[in-house]
Amino acid sequence: MNHTARLAEFVIDTREVPTPVMHGARDALIDTLGCGLAGTLEETSEIVARYVRECGGAPQATVWGQGFAATALDAALANGVASHALDFDDVHANVHGHPSTTIVPAVLAVAEQVRASGAAVLSAYAIGLEVGGKLGCAFGSGHYQRGWHATATTGVFASAAACARLMGLSAAQLRHALGLAASQAAGLLRNFGTMTKPFHAGHAARCGVQSATLAKHGFTADTSIFDDDKNFLTTYTDGGTQPLGELLDRLGQPWEVLAPGISYKRWPCCYCNHRSIGGLLAMIAEHDLKPADVEAVEIGFPKGTATALISENPQTGLEGKFSIEYVAAATLLDRKITLETFTDVMVQRPAVRALMTKVKRRHIDDGNMYSGSSGYNDLKVRSTRGEFAQRIEKSPGSPEWPMSEADRDEKFMDCAGRVLGDKGARALLDLARNCEQLTDVRELAQATLPASGLGAQSKSSARVLA
Questions:
Q1: Within this chain, do residues 24 and 116 fall inside the same structural domain, yes or no?
Q2: CA-CA-CA-CA torsion for 393, 396, 399, 405, nearest 10 degrees?
Q3: Which residue pairs from 63-67 have beta carbons closer than 8 angstroms and sit at least 24 positions apart in sequence?
Q4: Which of 30, 168, 223, 420, by CA, is between 20 and 30 Å from 305?
Q5: Could you tell me if 156 and 248 lie in one domain?
């Protein structure tokens, strides 16, 4: 049996998803909804929401936080963009990017359309991530290093697989959907720091819905897209990756939701920054470092760990999310990183610009290849009171350095409460926690809509903050 067929049969034929995996899927759903709702306040998301509203079409699925419904395709696009707009959404080492921002918006849009249960949504998510994680390992780190945004190029297959399961496609139909998804796999690192990065996520979510829908209606594509000559892997990678056949032998053994597991972000910026933020905050707490004390900051990056940090001299809040120079300076100056850290005004503060000149990157050549969610950073701060150094080998929010459930709930309430208010955010959190018991997921989707006037008020407040 070829690889594409094996993958499709796993997606469609798997009957039982273990309880711990369902719980992991639920946690990812909650985090994505929170990030997505806060993301609706960004100009990026507002533009896409206006575009989707202008497109019209059958009101099949809810556009989160916006007070209207759209086609399942366009709802997946808008909600995917919003979920990734703040770069606050979760990360997965094997995917080499953000898994939930491409899967959750797609499966919820389809679930509303077909009136799926909450349990069906969670199992579809888990199976979609299983596809994304195994394919991500097959694509390898070289795919990302060449300039592809793996969130999008891997995510489109995860999304298509999850949607196909919810729609009840056959394995044969899913093979066509995967072939169609392959021709829509796109996203470039060059677009980081612009509105197009979150578009990558929304595009992948939309294309997943589209691929599964067209395949269900009989649309054809190559049915062996991961096999033989000129397949997706040989076209998009440099080789030297894990053999896909061996990876498929491990489908569900272990489940990607559990191992390596999902990393939840403590701060709304590129995950390549997070080890350094964690290390700096620890140094500040231990040594009471003041900005005036700091003479120089040196941050060592092994190969692959700074690929996404493409901006050394950011001028905007979006660019600041992908700049260790800005993030380190802001951490030292403010002793915290928040949603408000990444506005244009905050990036242009004279005090932070002065500190940025003291932050330098150093390449570490240890012969290995890593990624933003793997590896380590060497942090050295020279101050008027001495020199402090630390190697940070764990990523904050990862299974090795996890956020507690209380931490995740606080993050959700802060994010969702900006749109829904405290009462609405709490109601949505309670529904999402009990997603597995919902007979119709439309109840959850409706809870993403703010009370009359609240959304507009929140958007106005967000603009004032910016």
A1: yes
A2: 160
A3: 64/33, 64/36, 64/37, 64/40, 64/445, 64/448, 64/449, 65/36, 65/37, 65/40, 65/419, 65/420, 65/448, 65/449, 65/450, 65/455, 66/40, 66/449, 66/455, 67/449, 67/450, 67/455
A4: 30
A5: yes
Q: Average pLDDT, whole number, for the chain?
A: 94
Q: Is residue 400 part of a domain?
A: no
Domain count, the chain: 2
**Helices 196-216 and 100-114 meet at what angle, rounded to 10?**
40
Q: Are residues 240 and 279 in the same domain?
A: no
Last residue of a domain, one of 231, 263, 295: 263
* Residue 74 clears pLDDT 80, i.e. is over it: yes
* Structural domain ending residue among the three candidates 221, 236, 263: 263
pLDDT average, residue stretch 64-74: 97
> Is the same domain home to 256 and 290?
no
Angle separating helix axes 72-84 and 43-55, nearest 10 degrees: 180
pTM, two decimals, is 0.94
pLDDT tens sequence across 208-233 = 999 999 999 999 999 999 999 999 99
Region for 304 from its dihedrals, namely left if φ exceeds 0, alpha if ψ lies in -120 to 50, beta otherwise: left
pLDDT band at 456 (very low <50, low <70, confident <90, very high): very low
- Regarding whether 384 and 295 lie in a shared domain, the answer is yes
pLDDT at residue 451, as a whole number: 84
